[in-house]
Task: structure prediction
Amino acid sequence: MTKAQRACLAEALVSGYDLLRRGAPSIDAVEATIRVLEGSGLFNAGCGARPQLDGTRRMDASIMEGRDLRAGAVAGIEGVRYPVAAARLVMEETAHVLLVGPLATHFARHFKLDRQPSPGKRVQRTVSLPRARLTGLQRKTRDLFAQMQKPSRLRREARETVGAVALDRDGTVAAGASTGGIALMLPGRVGDTPLIGCGVYADNEAGAVSMTGLGESIIRIAVAKEIADRLAGGANPATTARLVLAKLTKRVQGSAGALVLSRDGRFAITHNTARMTAGYWSGTGRPVVADRFP
Ligand code: GLY
Result:
């Protein structure tokens, strides 16, 4: 983790907790926290999202609250500074849960959501590929299809989705996540982040969960819902997260990290990857930020 990332995470935690302290709902705290991370350009989400193989950034995000199980998500959205805000609008302003692709972008434009600054030189160069390089790109894409049979290859390249979970003074939990996907992904690829029950879940009868890691593995276990179901049965967050991540490893050779918060405020940050950059704050002292958790 860089110094700038550490400072940004601390800022995000403070901004979310300050809202909770003032009595705001947990969904506001989750959105505010994620927006700081998306806007920073320091993580693989929002302004820092990595491009797909054709050079275009297509981002995924979701948000969910645990009182009425309301949820919203976007997948493959482009040019939006805070994709989590678009997910929140899907939840608040439509009768749907998930909008995808150019029409998700159109939806964000309709609500005049902040636009992302134009991508850096590296991304722009990739967009205007000359023919020879385009052929190379097609070959790379074909190779990637072959590699998709080899989960170990993809596993090494998954990293840096952002997310948050929170519990407010009314006892409502919320969870959210936002990502630019994984390295070397095919145009059109969607991961776990916008899929409710895979990348996020929130239920006042259980708790809140937000996932980071390789979407191709997380989706197949529906990890967030599996953790939430165990919490609903009274299980401890740390034990639950460890057990479900062990199942992920055993069944699909997956790698992931989980933010887990129970309905009574116990929490765990657990990962089966070498590192997971994350933090927590409960309003006293300094926010705790680290890139390894037990
Ligand atoms: N967890 C982020 C992704 O796989 O897209």
Q: What stands out?
A: The chain has ten helices and eleven strands. The pocket of glycine is lined by residues 158, 161, 179, 181-182, 191-193, 212-215 (CB under 6 Å). Residues 81 and 174 are 21 Å apart (CA to CA). The chain has one domain: 3-290.
